[in-house]
Amino acid sequence: MHDKFKGSEIGNFEARLSRLVDLQRSLCSKALPQDMEDDNPEATRRLATMQIPAIQPVFKFYSPGAQSDIVDHMMTTNDISNRTVAVAAFATNLNEVHEPSDRGRIINQALLSFADDNPLIRDNGGRALARAHGHLDAVQQERLTQLFHGNPGLVQQYNELMKEQQAWYREERVQLPSPNLDRSIDTIAGQVQRLPEGISTPEQAVAAHKVAKLVAESYNCAHNELIGRSRERSSLGR
């Protein structure tokens, strides 16, 4: 009975995970272009400013190789403004970027952008660094310290961005459509289905981002439920 109960819990989690992965794939196939064009400035702008931010909540579901392809595409574009907007999105949950080398490239670009003379680029670079707080290695932390020494005004800007991000993360929290997780997943599946093919407006990006957050939160709830029941079982077995 004990093993059967355990297997049922794991099986239920795996079934939910399979559905959520399918939803992530469907959402991302609608949000991201099939082929990322290197020589199309307008397509790169849409990718950086709308499409990558839209899928950011479910970026963790990508394989390491697929993540690296997207990061590499954005880090090699000639437009520093697009690179900076993209790293601000990537840095939102940097622990969900699988490869350390990709995390390093994201932070290094953020540092370069935070030192830029363009106020908008500098602001987005600082925003990315605020989101990546705690992930900088010793060399990157020293580079940030040197930026502060060279331009004391950046200290205040960075502190303000840190406060902004704390408020932003609170606003990003979502509530699932139903207390019943499986019913929530059913509702989210309908929302994914209704998303348009291709994201070309800020409104479409916001809508896709909200649905992506629900997919990610459903996964978190499913995982937490599995862990919680496993702990209950362990306590009963003592």
Structural summary, described in words:
By secondary structure, the chain is an all-alpha fold. The chain has one domain (2-236). The chain is 75% helix and 0% strand. It contains ten helices and no strands. It has helices at 2-31, 41-55, 64-75, 80-90, 100-114, 119-131, 138-150, 153-172, 181-194, 202-236. Helix 6 crosses helix 8. The longest helix has 35 residues, at 202-236. The relative contact order is 0.14. Residues 1-6 have low confidence and may be disordered.
Portion in helices: over 70%
Biggest beta-sheet profile? none
Number of helices: 10
What number of domains? 1
| Overall pLDDT metric | 90
Strand content: under 5%
> Which segments are poorly predicted (pLDDT under 50) over 5 or more consecutive residues?
1-6
> What coarse outline follows from CA principal-axis ratios?
globular
In total, how many beta strands? 0
Give the C-alpha Rg.
20 Å
Structural class designation = mainly alpha
* Element order: H for helix, E for strand: HHHHHHHHHH
Write the layout of secondary structure elements.
Layout: H1 2-31, H2 41-55, H3 64-75, H4 80-90, H5 100-114, H6 119-131, H7 138-150, H8 153-172, H9 181-194, H10 202-236
Helix pairs in contact: 1-9, 1-10, 2-4, 2-10, 3-5, 4-5, 4-6, 5-6, 5-7, 6-8, 9-10
Q: How is this structure best summarized?
A:
The chain is mostly helical and 238 residues long. The chain contains 10 helices and no strands.
